[in-house]
């Protein structure tokens, strides 16, 4: 596990992304503000638990819909990619996995919202695939950060969730001693890591915060714990001039 505990600003940062020159990133907690550690503006999506990934338009005039203040008016997708500097791309989460991807060689980044549905229908494959086709990304150059999400300790699931991953050859079930009850539990973080490695990302380039949103009520939001009262934590990444 490689992660820094939340600093004074309430932002989790992963060491593998943090050390990259020209990349800034953060996973905001309920105590922090993403804009304290990344440039603004922050481009967003209306997340729909799907696998569609978009490229942020290069022309500033074509981007306005990504900055809507009403979530419902944002473009509907679960991953966003850009090679434009000084602009942050972000996803909002409260239990689902936030996955930030940087290709420092091609100079392109991605922010992905991955719940079990998006993860099992290819949202990470689509993000890295689009980075490759549009910007020439090689998976071996990618650095991947997986932020706080509901952990294998608390993510009790029905058989359809585990089946969706088992059918693709991924063992998604958390070991019984680790889970908090005898019902099946899913380890989304380890599946996301397995998917990125299968795509060709090197294991040492993948970091998982390994922090459970449901277990840490004092500083993280959890939809399963807080229901409709749960806020959302913004997780983003940007390229900077340097
Ligand atoms: Zn937990």
Can you describe this structure?
By secondary structure, this protein is α/β, with parallel strands linked by helices. It has a single domain (11-151, 189-239), classed as 4-Layer Sandwich (CNF1/YfiH-like putative cysteine hydrolases), CATH 3.60.140. It is built from 6 helices and 11 strands. The protein has helices spanning 15-18, 116-120, 123-135, 159-166, 188-198, 223-226, and strands at 11-12, 23-28, 42-43, 53-55, 79-82, 88-93, 97-103, 108-114, 143-146, 206-208, 233-239. The protein has a 6-stranded mixed β-sheet with strand order 4-5-8-7-9-10. Strand 7 and strand 8 form a beta hairpin. It is globular and about 50 Å long. The two termini are 29 Å apart. The model is unreliable at 1-6 (pLDDT under 50). Zinc ion is lined by residues 151, 153-154, 212, 214-215.
What descriptors fit this protein?
single chain; 242 residues; six-stranded mixed sheet; binds zinc ion
What summary fits the major beta sheet?
6 strands, mixed
Q: CATH homologous superfamily - what is it?
A: CNF1/YfiH-like putative cysteine hydrolases
Strand composition percent: 15-25%
Quickly give the CATH architecture. 4-Layer Sandwich
Helix content: 10-25%
Distance between the termini: 29 Å
The stretches of 5 or more residues where confidence is low (pLDDT under 50) are 1-6
Round the mean pLDDT to the nearest integer and report it: 91
Q: Whole-number radius of gyration? A: 17 Å
Number of domains: 1
């Amino acid at each position: 596990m490689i992660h820094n505990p939340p600093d004074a600003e309430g932002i989790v940062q992963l060491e593998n992304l943090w050390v990259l020159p020209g990349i800034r990133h953060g996973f905001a907690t309920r105590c922090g503000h993403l804009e304290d550690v990344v440039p603004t503006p922050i481009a967003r999506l209306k997340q729909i638990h799907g696998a569609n990934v978009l490229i942020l338009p290069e022309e500033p005039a074509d981007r306005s819909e990504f900055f809507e203040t009403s979530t419902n008016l944002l473009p509907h997708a679960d991953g966003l990619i850009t090679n434009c500097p000084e602009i942050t791309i972000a996803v909002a989460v409260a239990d689902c996995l936030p996955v930030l991807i940087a290709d420092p060689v091609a100079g392109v980044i991605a922010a992905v919202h991955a719940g079990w549905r998006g993860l099992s229908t290819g949202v990470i494959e689509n993000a890295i695939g689009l980075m490759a086709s549009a910007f020439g990304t090689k998976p071996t150059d990618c650095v991947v950060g997986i932020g706080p999400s509901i952990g294998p300790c608390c993510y009790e699931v029905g058989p359809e969730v585990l089946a969706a991953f088992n059918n693709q050859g991924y063992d998604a079930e958390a070991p019984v001693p680790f889970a908090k009850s005898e019902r099946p539990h899913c380890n989304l973080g380890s599946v996301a890591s397995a998917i990125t490695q299968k795509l060709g990302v090197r294991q040492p380039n993948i970091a998982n915060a390994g922090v459970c949103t449901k277990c840490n009520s004092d500083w993280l939001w959890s939809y399963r714990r807080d229901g409709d009262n749960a806020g959302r934590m913004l997780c983003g990444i940007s390229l900077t001039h340097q």
